[in-house]
Amino acid sequence: MKIGKLSKVSGCSIQTIRYYEKENLLSNPNRSEGNFRLYDNNSLKELEFVKHCRSLDIPLSDIKRLIELKQSPEESCSSVNALIDDQLKLVNQRMIELKSLKKELQKMASSCSSDNSIDQCGIIRSLDK
Amino acid sequence: MKIGKLSKVSGCSIQTIRYYEKENLLSNPNRSEGNFRLYDNNSLKELEFVKHCRSLDIPLSDIKRLIELKQSPEESCSSVNALIDDQLKLVNQRMIELKSLKKELQKMASSCSSDNSIDQCGIIRSLDK
DNA sequence: ATAAACCCTATAGTTACTATAGAATCAAGC
DNA sequence: GCTTGATTCTATAGTAACTATAGGGTTTAT
């Protein structure tokens, strides 16, 4: 299949697919006579692997690392585990941050009714502190 | 004070201060004979306003908007309220996403002990799905 | 007078894409 | 055989909010 089809099947945009290829997250596809990329089922699997990782917010550099690791199936998977653990830590950290953001935003929102003048706006006031 | 001092007092890096100025989030400071930026207490307040907004993850474009609104103290503050509401919605949305990320990452982490071979790695297997 | 510390502008790099421009290729209909 | 529209190609620039660097000028202290 050509890139348009792969894009539809996978749900990734055409530009994203080409971008992943340039970043070596996908193996180089065969080309048609007219230089069009030709994909098969394996290409789709590669792309879906990347997509799944991205849905977990794993950065491309780490995905590249995971792909390399997959090339050595007999080695220990401890670094895979470490990578996921780190990702989990990041997510937890970000959740903590968001919780406190949420708190302050809620407090601000409740500190002002929208029919004030900006002069009297409770939100502007708290931002000015 | 010069930019180095402002940087220390505010906790923003020198480059960030210059960047905010270029983006019109800070008013243009006076300059010394040798063309050094000279700041006063009001500059510090401006910077702290921006910093406070940024700590709430409010994008620079919205901060610019808030600063403009502050210039018309007699107008209604309903758009300020709307802006904070939107920001709150974004934060809530992101929290929902992070929760499901966390869930899947935890599931993956628990699906593999680190002394497996990559071949047998539960994490790689779930990513391959 | 000179060296260290500070400041200046302008430019490039970061992440993970998205959006163009301008050209080539292919598929379908006449 | 030809044209038209859809698809593809590469290369480049833009996005957000900074950070980092190069290559200079200025100030302060000795």
Q: Please, could you describe this protein's structure?
A:
The structure is a homodimer of 129-residue chains. Chain A has 129 residues and is mainly alpha-helical. Helices cover 64% and strands 3% of the residues of chain A. Chain A has six helices and two strands, in the order H-H-E-E-H-H-H-H. Chain A has a two-stranded antiparallel sheet. The model of chain A has no long low-confidence stretch (mean pLDDT 92). Chain A binds a DNA duplex (30 and 30 nucleotides) through residues 2-4, 13-16, 18-19, 23, 32-37, 54, 59-61.
Give a short overview.
The structure is a homodimer of 129-residue chains. Chain A contains six helices and two strands.
Quaternary structure classification: homodimer
User: Using only CA atoms, what is the Rg of chain A?
Assistant: 23 Å
What is the SS-derived class of chain A?
Answer: mainly alpha
Terminal-residue CA separation of chain A: 59 Å
Q: If you average the pLDDT of chain A, what whole number results?
A: 92
Helical residue percent band of chain A: 55-70%
**Strand fraction of chain A:** under 5%
- Largest interface chains and counts: A-B, 51 and 51 residues
One letter per element, helices H and strands E, the order of chain A comes to HHEEHHHH
Shape of chain A: elongated
- DSSP summary, beta strand count of chain A: 2
Q: Tally the helices of chain A.
A: 6
